[in-house]
Amino acid sequence: MAPMRACHLPLASLLVLLPLAACSGGDGEEASSTSSSGGADTSSSSGGGNTSSSSGGAASSSSSSSGAASSTSSGGASSSTGGTSSSSGAASSSTSSSGAASTSSSGGASSSSGGSNEVTWGAEVTEDVPDGAEVNTTVTTVVIPAGADVTVGSGVMFTGGAAKIRVLGALTILGSEASPVFLGGRTLEVGSGGTVVASHFEIMGAPVALKVESGAGVVAVDHLTTNGNTKDCDIAGGEVSVDRSHFEGGTSGAVCTISGNTTRPVFTNSYISSAGGDFFVLNGGGSVDANHNILEFTHCAIHSNSATTPSFTYNIFRSNDYAIMFGQGQVEMTNNHIGTASFLDRISDIATSSTTNSVDATGNYFADGSCPADTAKVTYQPCASGPIADVGPLP
Predict the structure, then answer these.
(1) What are the residues facing 172 on neighbouring strands?
(2) How confident is the model at residue 279 (pLDDT cuts 50, 70, 90)?
(3) Model confidence over 63-91: pLDDT tens digits?
(4) CA atoms lying within 13 Å on the CB side of residue 230
(5) What is the per-residue pLDDT across 100-156, written as a single tens digit (0 to 9) for each?
């Protein structure tokens, strides 16, 4: 058997067998690059990472698929190195497909960062306000014009210096128990033709919390909370209903004035406390239907100068100097819980002798167990012999 001989290939043959690819190690001795500008792409590779960038174009994109990838956008070019990519421009996008990816974007006309949106109200408003927005008012009177229909979402907070929001169109406030709407010290003023449906909102420190003018339409309010206003309400028109609301701390001698209205407002299931003076003050033939409320810590819960048959039933009167002072007009005041008739929560005739006035105060329960004798102007008897069911706010 002939001995085997070593085979030596020529150097040129070995070079043919090598892969036809450009390689570069960590020293970067061999590298290739291409570049272009004005909307083209530029790419280069070195080290083992890769970088791509584009400039001058309106849009760019980059991607990576190794490592813990992250992407950001803010500017006009994009690059990716070692599994990290960033892009910026008028419209940019970046994606990653491996690792724990994260993205962020900035720029443009509006921004969202997990907080509330910011909205500015000027002299006239016609657009809705989304949930959780912060509304900055830049003028002393904001008007919702006739024909406009504006909805304010839950959790909205008003800031800035407006003294009032005047409604000549339609306003809907959609506050909730968990996210009420905060109007701050702004008067909610409803003019002729205006309508309001409002739930779960707060007004504090205003000259007047709720003002309704002659010619206004439906004003339906529930879960209104007031505190520290000069006046809580000034009602001269509209079809007003107030339910499950909390009035406290009005500082005026006449906290809620009602005058000249053709449809009497209705107050139900509410808590009313005002150390500043009288709460319901009826003038110029004004009237009100107040039932299932608590009225306490006022000078007069009701002060009727000139009224058209107001009605107060199933209320709790306690710790007021007077439950009612009454002048001209006839008042229904039946089936209430009243502190006492002779000390606190008194019923007092303030009319002159020539004025026709009277109070029907039958069916009331007096906390001291008394049943006062009738007078020329007040009919007390018969009285309730014990506490009355369903008196005060209903569940």
Answers:
(1) 151, 197
(2) very high
(3) 333 333 333 333 333 333 334 333 333 33
(4) 8
(5) 333 333 333 333 334 458 999 999 999 999 999 999 998 999 999 999 999 999 999
Which residue(s) pair with 54 in the sheet?
41
> Which of these, 49, 76, 46, 79, lies nearest to 62 by C-alpha position?
79
> 287 near 262, Cβ under 8 Å?
no
Report the alpha-carbon distance of residue 148 to residue 194 in Å, rounded. 10
d(CA 293, CA 244): 9
62 burial type by CB count under 10 A (0-12 exposed, 13-18 middle, 19+ buried): buried
Q: What does pLDDT average to over the chain?
A: 77
Residue 16 gets which letter from DSSP?
Answer: H
The pTM of this model reads 0.70
4: which residues sit within 8 A by CB, 6+ positions away?
Answer: none
Residue scoring higher pLDDT (313 or 58) = 313
Distance CA 388, CA 395 (A): 15
How many residues can be counted in the chain?
395
Q: Please, are residues 194 and 172 in contact by the beta-carbon 8 Å criterion?
A: no
Question: Structure tokens of 36?
Answer: 């272009």
Q: For residues 157 and 180, is the Cβ–Cβ distance under 8 A?
A: no
User: DSSP letter string over 67-127?
Assistant: SS-EEEE-SS-EEEETTEEEE-SSEEEEEE-SSS-EEEE--SS---SSS--EEEE-SB--S
DSSP letter at 193? Answer: T
C-alpha of 368 from chain center: 44
pLDDT exceeds 60 at position 169: yes
Contact 189, 163 (CB under 8 A): no
Confidence category of residue 19, pLDDT binned at 50, 70, 90: very low
